[in-house]
Amino acid sequence: MAQKMADEDGILEIARKTVSEGPICDHCLGRQFANLSTGMSNDERGRAVRIMLSMQRNEALALDHGKDCWVCNGLFTELDVWAERAVQELESVDFDTFLVGTMITGLLAENEEVLWTLSGTTFAELLKSELNREVGKRICSITKKEVEFKRPDVVVIMDIEREQVRLDINSLFIYGRYRKLERGIPQTRWPCRECRGKGCEKCNYTGKQYSESVEELIRSSVLDFFKGEDMILHGAGREDIDARMLGSGRPFVMEIISPLIRHADLVEVVSRINEDNKGRVEVLDARYADKEVVRHIKSTESDKVYNISATFKSKVNKEKLKSTLRALSGIIIRQQTPTRVMHRRADLQRNRKIHEAALISFDDITGTQAVIQLRCEGGLYVKEFVNGDMGRTEPSISSLLGIDAAVKELDVIEVSMDLTGERQWQGLEANAGKRDTN
Questions:
Q1: Do 209 and 281 have their domain in common?
Q2: pTM (predicted TM-score)
Q3: Is 81 found in the same domain as 42?
Q4: Does residue 422 or residue 47 have the better pLDDT?
């Protein structure tokens, strides 16, 4: 009981010091004891503390000073005003979840620190934390939307000094697979090698090495639906510019930056993309996802299947080629960074496994043309696996045959991913109204 009385005395002493510094509202008074109880708002705590002090002193109950509060400068009398400003900004945005943040002035921060020092409280909550919560409750009541602390669709920022509200709209993520049906298109925007994206005569002042990319072809169609500022393509690896991506396509995520619309029929979105890029790029299997999917497809090792159209400098014996491919199946290929990419990649040795290599077709007339199917670990440099890259890739088809070989055309047929990981995104489209979208 003595310990309990001592604690009560300590609380009352903090309260006396707090109210003695000048006029203070119930919110700011109660906030000094925010960590002592649950089930009450800070203004209710403040009111309770005033009653305790008045009873102890046998004095008339002191009033909540509201606009005259020296700590918040009357900010807590304007909670409804701030909520209305936020709701007006949110009217133009499609969202399910939100969070409120506050940029307080230097004066408010200083007032708060002065009070902590003078009162000696160790139970206080930050002023902006209470502001965020109280305005958030009002926005929630008006819009019927949910507060989300980890990954909200939109963050409402209250700028106290400027008396303005701005919105930070978090990205929307859509998982899918793309097929690239035309050679000569890079996956993403490729800055000009000469000017590094600044724009020069060589790139016709576009800043780009190639006039378009898979990312750019998809972007314009997607942004029409979601009214975003931009779109970023996150791919599970990338094929060479001169290679096609066929079969079931390459896993990728479309990140829509600052979308004003978060809900669209993905069947319609895909249909528009494919119609706008007919015969060039296709998107398959689109579904809403979240930010974790980007990490997943970037970090998951994917096996690849290629069809390689190869040419040989001199005539090859068909049976020897078959036996060479069988010998390569199941072995580890050691690859030093290819000479063609050394200008942008670290010079390292990479080891990749060949699961299976087989002859698909052979030109019996010339003996110098063949189509080879290759199933291997992701990250294998296929062109160097064929030509050997002057000994930097060992073994290679060329080195084992003793004949110079080259890739004439290359198609990616399959990019395998952890299907368990893919299955966990099933159904996200159906639950789009309740999903996390950051």
A1: yes
A2: 0.84
A3: yes
A4: 47
